Amino acid sequence: MARDYSAILEYEMPMESRCADVVLLVGVGVMVIELKGKLYPSQADLDQAVAYARDLRNYHRECNSRDVTAVLVPTRMRGYQQMVDGVHVTGPDALAGLIARVAFTSTRTGTSQVFLIGANGGQAMQLTHEASGAFTPTWRTDRRNLLYVSIAQFPRLMLIPSAGGDPSLFASDDRGLRDPACAMNACIAVAGPGDANSDIVSTSSAGGTIRVVLGRAPNDRQPAFLVP
Predict the structure, then answer these.
(1) Topology at the third CATH level for domain 2-99
(2) pTM surpassing 0.85?
(3) 47 in Cβ contact with 67 (< 8 Å)
């Protein structure tokens, strides 16, 4: 997992002399992590983590348009606890699971929905609430959003923040879209039901033009990118 992020230790915060213990660059997102040698955090600890994240968002040019997440790690705590005042509070043993998350589908609530869980396990969080079901989630490379297939009316690609919230339409085709995959600034999918009229298509942005990559692909499914 270390290839997926970079860490800066004792980073001096903008506009003040204090230093954050760790600033983690995860994809295009940023995590500011504060360590405390205790079992439970105090309100002052939470306020400090909130201030660090706020200062990075407001006073650091490169962080201004990025998702900045505040994390507080009481080093004697075990497991992920909860989010308090916008700060993730977690023990060191659950930190990797907070950084690396797994998206999956489950019918545990009745209809197939997308859930998230830490790579080390823990409590799964339901992300989608599609009446007709949600299928085949795939991460966008910004690590902040996922694509999934909604079959409301006809299969189409929806975009949803990994932190939760309302989904938005990413791409649609009259024949239906399925089997999405993402890399860099592009996404590919299968357009059509898998018969002689199906194509493998790509689009570079939400609502963007859909281009045919491989036409008349009756037996071709599950396209994937090779990322160098």
Answers:
(1) Trna Endonuclease; Chain: A, domain 1 (3.40.1350)
(2) no
(3) no
